[in-house]
Every structure is written in structure tokens, then in C-alpha cells.
Amino acid sequence: MNILILCTGNSCRSQMAHGFLQSFDRNLKVFSAGTQASGKLNEKAVQVMKEAGIDISHHTSDSIDKYLNDEWDYVITVCGGANETCPAFFGKVKHRLHMGYDDPSHAEGTPEFIMSEFYRVRNEIKEGFGKLYEEKLKNTISIDRSEKALSYFDNKFNCSQAVLASFAEELGLAEDDSLRIASAFGGGMGRQQFTCGAVCGGAMALGLKFGKGKNDGDEKKQATYDKTVELFEAFSKLNGSSNCRKLLNNLDMRNEKDLALIIEKNLFHTNCRKYVVDAVKLTEQIIDNSK
Q1: Cα separation of 118 and 104, whole Å?
Q2: What is the pTM for the complete model shown?
């Protein structure tokens, strides 16, 4: 999902909104720009965001011209000036929102009062964009990931590849690497029809998110085991089993006659597509519940 946040100078409010929204979900592709970009970030904005646990010091202050020809799911203005003078977009824009906030850089008074204004506006932006994410963006992202997984599956990648690849980029794994890793797990692991490949793809995503690395303690390994059990139990509750053969009506895809029946009954489409979506949604829920 592509989101552009606009302000006048792209030095303060839009930068804070950019930082918060990106922190809510790495799957979002968030950008910010200004109608009259200042070319640098406000130091106080960087400071108050750092105190909130978000580093925006690496952001750049960019002109809106850079993004005029791109396509956006959301374009959000965060100050009155930008809302009134926002230039026309030549690319496709699905939703345009205005969420107005005071400009703390215009605050006058004692240093303490000025900083209090930065804290106030920062907190208002966090609350406003948090509400936007929970009420409008979160469910849409879930739908987008399921559709992405089905797109892989419908284009001749197996169920395990489809699930893992839909999570790969945001978990730090290259798309092609995820497809290669998961390739062996399709068809219940190499078409042996043991454990459903879609659930295996979800388990690998959980490993990427929560697993024990070289310098981690054993508690991360146990936590990953617990989340994997949670995934398998939830999947089995939905579908009656996590065994590939049982999920395909006890038909053996390595048997020529059974495979013909699977194809005749269109089970790869009617059954397996559902298992891909279920695995994606359940894995998402487990990740979201751990935030």
C-alpha cells in the first residue's frame, strides 16, 4: 500500500506522521513531501520523535514534484496550507484525506512552551494516525497480502511459496530467496502430503519474525515454538486437519488416478486457495497480537 503524506515544508508534521505510520506496519510504503519543501528536517521534530522511540533523522525533505506522476492508495495532507494548495495528481489516487495539525515550528514563547507544543502535536499525530491505521488501513493490508499470496499461487508457485513470499519483504527476506526456500515445502513437503505447505509457509514467516538468531537467547526459540503451535492449532480448527492428504480428501497426488481426481474435482483451486488465505490470515493475527 502506497501512502503519501503532504505538508507545506515537509520538515515537521508530515515527517512525524511519516515516522509513526511507518512504525505501525513495515508493509506500508510511506512517503512524505512538501508543496514548498524546506530541504531539511526540523531539529525539534527529530528530537521529540526520537524520544518516542522513532528515528526520522535519516528522512529527507522532498518536493511534491517528485511524486506527482506516481500512483497512491492514500494521499494525506496534515496542514491547512497543503490542503488548500495541494497540486493536481496525474497518477491514480484512490483516497485523499486531510488531517490538520497545528504547526509547532510557529510556536512563540519560552523554550519550555515551544517544546511543549512539539510534544503536543507529536502526540496528536500519533493518536490520529494510529486511529487511521486501526480503522482503515490494517484490514486493507490483510486483504492485500491474501491477494498477493493468491497471485503467487495462481501463477504456478506452490502453497508454501505463496504464503512465505507474501511476508518476505517486510521480514527482511528477498522475494526470490523466499520462493526458493519454500519451494521444497509444497505439496505437504515435496508432494509427500505430510504437513500442509501453506501452514509451513506461515511457520517460516513466524520464524523470520520471532526466531532465535546467532546472538539470541533460547527464550526466542521457545516463543517461536509456541507461536507455531498456535498457528497449527488454529489452522486445524478451521479446516479439520493440517495434514495435506486429509485436506485433499485423502487423495494421493503421487498416484496417477488420485491426481486425476484432484484435477477433475478442481481441489487445488477450491481447497488449496482457501488454505493459502487461511495460513496468511492466521500468521498475520499471531504477528499482530504480539505487537
Answers
A1: 5
A2: 0.60
3-state DSSP assignment of residue 264:
helix
Tens digit of pLDDT at every position of the chain (291 positions)? 899 999 888 999 999 999 999 998 877 889 999 888 889 999 999 999 999 999 999 999 999 888 888 889 899 999 875 555 555 566 678 888 999 899 999 899 999 999 999 999 999 999 999 999 988 888 776 667 898 999 999 999 999 999 999 999 888 899 999 999 999 999 999 999 999 999 999 999 999 999 999 999 999 999 999 999 999 999 999 999 999 999 999 999 999 999 999 999 999 999 999 999 999 999 999 998 886
Residues ≥6 apart with Cβ < 8 Å to 121: 13, 16, 101, 102, 103, 104
Catalytic residue list: 7, 79, 86
Strands (E), the chain: 2-7, 29-34, 72-77, 93-98
Q: At what angle do helices 197-210 and 218-239 cross, to 10 degrees?
A: 150
List the beta strands (DSSP E) in 104-184.
Answer: none
The answer for residues whose C-beta is within 8 angstroms of residue 25's C-beta and 6 or more apart is 133, 137, 138, 141, 170
Class of domain 2-142: alpha beta
Per-domain boundaries in the chain: 2-142, 156-289
Residues 58, 25: Cα–Cα separation, whole Å: 18
